Amino acid sequence: MPKWAMVIDLDKCTGCGDCMAACKVENNVAIVSPEQAEENRVMFWMDMMTIYEGEYPNIKVTRIPKPCYHCDNPPCIKVCPVHATYINPEGLVGQIYHRCIGCRYCMAACPYTAKVFNWYEPEWADEFKTCMNPDVSLRMKGVVEKCSFCAHRLQHVKEDADAEDRPINDGEYMPACAESCPADAIFFGDLENKESKVYKLSRSPRAFKELEDLGTEPKVIYLSKRE
Amino acid sequence: MEEKKKTTVDIDEALYRPIYETGKGFYITVGVLLMIILFAAFMYIRQVYYGLGVTGMNQPVTWGFYIVNFVFFIGISHAGTLISAILRLSKAEWRRPITRMAEVITAIVLAIGGLHPIIDLGRPDRVLNIFTAGRLQSPLLWDVTSITAYFTASTVYLYLPMIPDIAKLRDRGGKLRWFYDFLSWGWQGTEHQKKVLNRAINILMVMVIPIAVSVHTVISYIFSMTLQPGWHSTIFGPYFVVGAIFSGIAALLIVMIAFRKFFHLENYLKLIHFRYLSTLLLIMSLLWFYFTFSEYLTGIFGAEPHEMDVILYKMTGPYAIFFWGMVICNFIIPVIVLSFKKFKTIKGILFASITVVIGMWLERLNIVIPSLANPRLELSTGMYFPSLTEWSLFIGALAVFVLGYVLFSKFFPIISIWEIEEGREESIKEVEERVKSYLPGPAGTTE
Amino acid sequence: MEIKRRDFLKLLGSATGAVAVGTYGCHEIIDVPERLIELAKKGPGIETWKNTICGQCPAGCGIKIRLIDGIPVYLKGNPNYPVNRGGMCPSGHSALEVLFNPDRVKEPVKRIGLPGSGKWEKVGWEEALKIISGKLKELRNAGKTNQVAFINGSAQPGLMDKHISQFMKAFGSPNYFKLPSISNKTVPYKLMQGLDQIPSYDLLNTKYILSFGSNFLEEGYSPVYYTKIYSHLRELTGGGRAKLIQIDARMSLTAANADLWVPVKPGTYGALALGIAYVLIREELYDKEFVNKYSFGFNDWVDKKGMTHLGFKSNVISNYYPEQVSKITGVPAETILQIARDLGNNKPAVVLGDEGVVDNTNGTFSQMAVYSLNALLGNFEKDGGVYFVDDPPLADLPEVNEDEIAAKGNRQTPVAKSTDTDYPLTDFSIDAFTNNVLNDKPYPISVLFLYKGNPLFQSINHRDFSEALKKIPLVVSFDPFVTETSEYADLILPDHTFLEKWDEFYNTPSVGFAHVGIQQPIIDPLYNTKNTADVILELSNLIGQSVATALPFESYEKEIRFSTEKLYSSGEGAIITEGVKSSWLEYLQQRGWQIGRYNSFEEFWELLVKQGGWWNPIRTKKDYKDIFKTPSGKFEFYSQYFERVINKLIEKIGGESPENREKVLHSLNIMARGDKVFLPHHEPVPIDESMPLYLVTYKLLTNRDGQASNQPLMQEMFGYTVHEHWNTWAEINPETAQEYKIENDQFVWVESAIGSIKVRARLNPGIMKEVVAVPFGLGHTSYGRYAKGYGVNPYSILKSKYDMINGNQALQATKVKISSAT
Amino acid sequence: MNGEEKKFHDKIIYMAQLASISFIWIFVAGIAVWILNLISISVDLNDAPGASIGISIIAIPVFFTLAGILTYVFVGFHKKNNNIKE
């Protein structure tokens, strides 16, 4: 059984924000109204953290793309009262929008603030509704959503691989962010496959995980010489 | 005591009076309350229609007033059953006029509090998913279970001691006779019935205390089971229970003072009752401070960075006014007012109780919001301002509480008449016997 | 928020993707063609991919569009396209929001109200073209063809540029201008090297990159290309990796990724560069061979008349010692020493200069100073150095046979050339254009065409420019949206959006190899719009005569075919394909870089369109004589070309005399005198001393010059690094903020002598204490529902100042004060 | 109210009381069934059933005890009543 994981090389990442945009388009993530954005209700499945370190003028800036970490021991699924968020055998932490009752307990429990909530019914101009990604279901008001590692792409990849009767190749299943990263800083693949790039990078001495001491075992691994 | 002996049964008429005499005041009160509740209901329907966006919640402050009020109301509910059970159990004779009042608070407030998580849902239409696809592993469902258990237990515990009084009302006849007949369960006041009732009450009394304690511990689990700084703490269980009893006593005192004033119950609720209860309040205030102190001491001593972020945010951040307000309301004011006999008047106690209730509400706010507003990762901190919807639902909830109380007192005596009678008839002798039995003497003369 | 009844009924609404498109209101779409609705609802869901070129910015990345039943639903970078290699920038991802934008101009319209009133009346294509061609014919008959002007707002070199140029030349007007004129930025290279081109830098083979304000990861000509290179550099961990030093007034995206950020006062980059040159010369770290053999004016020299002239060396040694430079720039002398030594000792090292350096009143001289460092390092045509890329072998359009009227018109002075002595080295200065149009100098303008860009929004002096637009009797805009500028147009002839049209681009500036990108329609036009290139063809046919013969093409698509035919026949380069193995590279280099996979042009063309582009990765090194087209045939520290230009200006106002020379230098805002004028030197920026802080403006990747403001995704992502959405903010150093009692997130007034804007303050340690930084992009007063009224436009408080030599807008020359606004 | 009417009235009331007691039992049984259902789901999904079982061990007896007490009181009251009537 593969275990899907992401490696983000912070030394290569420039913080350009392309992953954020690619993600929003691929996953039909709603764009909230400006007033809502002002109230901190924007929805980014892939967000960007900016850290400033040091004293002027020796300032170091680190920009860290932050998707859902797809923890192996996810604090969010433990608290869900209705099985609306789950971890599958391949390590993907998913969200069932139609079952979610909107209690937002998972959001409160997530140490990484990776989840977002549909405070209102998502709205698009009529024209924009034509160009929605048909592979991803639209969410409704009052449910929690988050990065799925573009799990719908895995479905396509699996179908292709099954049709050709072969295993999934390394790099065949890529989420939108990894695919379009201009710095090639996002890697994605199977952590169980010792030949995969992700496996090798995850063993790098530069590898670290956010808040590793919490024991959540995130499957998004960062590389940086700075820490 | 001399006084009491002289009083005759028709003095207890004062307790029946509110049921049979309906004044203008009653209609006005109910009308005003209904207006408030209707407005709140309108705001809630609006919220269901538009989505939770009408509240002030956001990312990362995903929980706001509703959860604060949920914890707060459930805390208040401890007034009743727990206090009355403890007092009954310890055979404190002065309990007799106050147990019912206390139990009613529990039943009403618990229902209100229990509704809050549903108000908080983004998809209330899917609430049944809890039954069809629930996860008992979620602390939220522990709450559902324990609150249901506590609600059931406390309703039974309110109802059983009411049966003799209901029978009295049935016997007085009137339009609602069938209603009281139904509820009185055929009570005739026979010895056997008394025995059965007493036995049942005794069992319940023992049962209800651990349930009550567990309920609030379980509420605290909602927070402490997560890994969030400021929440992930083992002290939260007892801390919440202490806070709950603390706010419960304060709420009970407020209710008692209100009834004393409006129903002219000075004869039943005497200064001594308030003195005793306020002493308990003082003790709880000190205990509360001790727990708060321990809670923050462990955080500050350990100085884990994220924990410290939250603590500093509470003490110096935008919510500092609420933090220090909480300390003043919950500790400084009650300790000053209740430590000096000079201030320990009815007015003084009322003042202290009100500050404690406000302070405990602030405490819940201080637990829920600052932790959420300070995400562990380097994201911007959040701010939370409740919207009109949240305020109106809060005020609506308070109105439901008052209305519930008003209606209850319209149909049932607010003071347990038969227990007062029992006290008059039997307790003096019984207490004398009992006290004698405590006193040192030859072993084996008493049980 | 408006909620419709049907939404409420759908309280329990559920939707998987396919259902979603159906239930979420396709039946209510009025504007999108019926055909698309039907497809979206009932289509079998067949997926296809098409390659084209992104039109969100001039960088021209190759993109792959995913179509379901012919409807584009997603796009990603074309992994084979050599500029971006599958990478994208955020704004590329919102391309579909351009195509499906609800605020598009759906058919030709005529303005019936005042500018900005938003009152437009439908006018058919035929009628619109009749109005325009009637006017053009009238002007031609009257022999006033020069009264027609055309402003092209795209900085991207491509066929369209040639196409318009051909039309204007055949028609007989010298007034074809490119707005964000690259020529304004090439002046330093012209002066020192004689080339009108932006150089490329071999960053991959260099060890030390010293960047003077060149925010190439964010504001550069192709951020994605440079991001790829940057990330490749980062892969080379350990000793081999190049160090990146960013000199900038604020922590730009590039500075954030640099190994060292050196804050410098705006407008003093040139001084810093010369300070570094001082150390290189003093410590003899420069390339002596190159400097002695291939440069002119390094040492003091004697001209033909026997006069001794000041050389670069003496000038630097006597004026730019580090302590002095430190005083000017605010950079500690030790830092200057350290950088200079690292630069001299880590060869190959390369020096970049752009944005912060160029966008000031002293831009030309500062850029010369920065560029002279490359000469000191002998970087030309070297691995890890500076080089220039040749144009791809595309066919030129046929020679224009000007008739008499056209020839007469073309001989007139262009209206964007200053009539005085200023802006001697530019083709287009918006300042000169505005003033000349307002004063009818040297002649009035009767017709103005506007293609792409939004000059009214993107330029400093809005007010005068809008007056000039009002003065022109017929303004025709080709914009697919109603921008601030098209508000002043009399006619809008909506262009296709870039996903619906044919176009051809080549050689994104500063990208290190020749390449051609083909933009093809990935969907039939949604509305009654036309490719502007085709409209020009139609117009030229309507005008007839020699104008029609100059553009003998049936359609623009045919014209593109025509131009690529030479690409095929030249045998150079190759159509982009999946990667080529390195062993192949060598083989191909020897055999010529053509893979014989296409037997005919038709085959070549089909593959070209399918793959999206052509490139030639092989480039032979050039001789110095080919890259130094200066009077001396060498790299000129002392610009003899500039000397000639100045002398010509002096002639123009009455001949050589100290007064006239003084007059010319004064009008060019040059403070230096004598030989220094022609040498790289530091020109102090005239600043408003009464204001305490510098205003530094910059462009963001999400919305570089405001063109993405009508895309909700880009509006939401606008300030993603500071979590600011749909709004402009000001970066302020925490210490400065403390001084002015300003707290994070509160609103402040940023006030210049021109005006003030109210923005939210964001405290940021990554900015100089004497600087306030505000991004461009927002503050639209038009441009559709998503753009209008959000944020503020910092152009509105910038002082109307220019680099008087090249006409570049001085975006960093304004000083401001801040005060709390709450 | 004559005897006949009273008898009828008493009967109705008695039936209603019985119904309410049965309702309590249905309610309690419902909770038990619900909890057991949740346990079976969590066992099926291998989703930490331990926690559910832990809760159920406490919750189910509590509910049954409460229902039992009510029944005891009801039955107790009426038993004595019948004796009196005899």
- Quaternary structure of the protein: heterotetramer
Report low-confidence residues of chain B grouped into runs of 5 or more.
Answer: 1-8
Biggest interface reads: A-C, 63 and 89 residues
Number of helices of chain B: 18
Strand content of chain D: under 5%
Sheet bearing the most strands of chain B, described? none
Order of helices and strands of chain B: HHHHHHHHHHHHHHHHHH
Mean pLDDT of chain B: 87
Give the proportion of residues in helices of chain B: over 70%
Mean model confidence by pLDDT of chain D: 82
For the secondary structure, the number of strands of chain D is: 0
What is the helix content of chain D?
A: over 70%
Annotation, overall tally of beta strands of chain B:
0
Query: So what's the overall shape of chain B?
Result: globular
Q: What is the general shape of chain D?
A: elongated
Number of separate structural domains of chain B = 1
Structural class of chain B: mainly alpha
Descriptive keywords:
heterotetramer, A: about 230 residues, alpha+beta, Alpha-Beta Plaits, four-stranded mixed beta sheet, two-stranded antiparallel ribbon, about 20% strand, globular, B: about 450 residues, mainly alpha, 18 helices
Structural description of this entry:
The complex is a heterotetramer of chains A (227), B (447), C (822) and D (86). Chain A is globular. In chain A, the strands form 4 sheets. A 4-stranded mixed β-sheet of chain A has the order 8-1-10-9. Chain A has a single domain (4-223), classed as 2-Layer Sandwich (Alpha-Beta Plaits). Chain A is α+β, with helices and mostly antiparallel strands. In chain A, 23% of the residues lie in helices and 18% in strands. Chain A is built from 8 helices and 10 strands. In chain A, β4 and β5 form a beta hairpin. The two termini of chain B are 28 Å apart. In chain B, 73% of the residues lie in helices and 0% in strands. Chain B has helices at 2-6, 13-20, 24-50, 65-76, 80-89, 99-119, 129-133, 139-159, 163-172, 177-184, 191-224, 236-262, 271-302, 305-316, 320-339, 346-373, 388-411, 417-438. The radius of gyration of chain B is 23 Å and the shape is globular. Chain B has one domain. Chain C has 822 residues and is an alpha/beta fold. Chain C folds into 3 domains: 109-181 and 397-578, 3-Layer(aba) Sandwich (Rossmann fold), CATH 3.40.50; 200-387 and 627-639, Dimethylsulfoxide Reductase, domain 2 (3-Layer(aba) Sandwich), CATH 3.40.228.10; 693-820, Beta Barrel (Barwin-like endoglucanases), CATH 2.40.40. In chain C, 34% of the residues lie in helices and 16% in strands. In chain C, α7 links the parallel β6 (148-152) and β7 (176-178). In chain C, α11 runs antiparallel to α14 and α11 crosses α15. In chain D, α1 (3-44) runs antiparallel to α2 (49-85). The longest helix of chain D has 42 residues, at 3-44. The mean pLDDT of chain D is 82. Classes of the chains: A alpha+beta (227), B mainly alpha (447), C alpha/beta (822), D mainly alpha (86). Chains in contact: A-B, A-C, A-D, B-C, B-D. The interface between A and C is large, with 63 and 89 residues.
